[in-house]
Write a structure and sequence with these properties.
Helix content is 42%, strand content 21%. By secondary structure, it is of the alpha/beta class. The structure holds S-adenosylmethionine (SAM).
């Protein structure tokens, strides 16, 4: 990111509602204890997800890729009374930290953490969703989309992260990950079952609304 873009980002963060102290603590611990802390949604994107969830008031949310739990806690804050967020994480070493922050956030009865491979767990859940956040392995995005599109309630939102891949999706010469993400964006854009918007928030969020 060049200097102007970084300054613009700082300005946006400075004029966005402060993150709750528990999320500040989670982000700090994520940076201290994990190898790729930049995977966490963080303040700006987390606040965006919280906004979407609070406006939508979902009953059931699915998150694919929990990491340390930042986005799960943000998305769960908009759940309807009695609602549930299911989040799936394949790395069992993260479980203790995720559960610690779910407890601090008093969300134990609203977040159901599944440890394992999302590709195996999603078909077993057999639920319908108001919001799905796709944020695990980029090569599997299209697979996840195909898996959940028929499980979306009408007006349901599918949100996928990192779809700009640091801007590489615009380039003609693309490596495998980049070309798969580019194809994923094109697949959603061409899908007549949804309307969509691609937003340049952080590394790019594409949002598809089921018609
Ligand atoms: C970008 S991080 C998620 C960040 C998190 N959603 C947030 O915004 O704070 C992606 C996570 O997906 C997990 N993951 C990768 N492949 C997975 C799979 N097949 N099933 C479940 N989780 C997976 C990784 O271990 C990693 O923790």
């Amino acid at each position: 990111m060049d200097r102007d873009a970084l300054e613009l980002l700082d300005y946006c963060i400075a004029h966005t509602t402060l993150e709750p102290s528990l999320l500040y603590g989670l982000e700090r611990e994520t940076y201290l204890k994990t190898l790729a802390p930049q995977m966490s949604s963080g303040h700006l994107q987390g606040q965006f997800l919280r906004f979407i969830s609070k406006i939508k008031k979902p009953e059931t949310i699915l998150e694919i890729g929990t990491f340390t739990g930042y986005s799960a806690i943000c998305l769960a804050s908009g759940l309807k009374e009695g609602g549930m967020l299911h989040t799936i994480e394949v790395n069992e070493e993260l479980e203790t930290m995720i559960r610690k922050y779910i407890e601090i956030a008093s969300l134990k009865n609203k977040i159901n953490l599944h440890i394992g491979d999302a590709k195996e767990i999603i078909p077993k859940l057999n639920l319908t969703y108001d919001i799905v956040f796709i944020d695990a392995g980029k090569i599997d995005y299209a697979f996840y989309y195909d898996l959940i599109i028929d499980m979306m309630n009408p007006e349901g939102l599918i949100i996928a992260d990192n779809v700009l891949w640091s801007g590489k999706v615009m380039k003609k010469k693309q490596n495998k990950d980049t070309s798969l993400l580019d194809a994923f964006n094109k697949k959603i854009h061409a899908d007549e079952r949804v309307e969509n918007i691609l937003l340049p928030i952080r590394d790019g969020l594409i949002i598809a609304r089921k018609l």
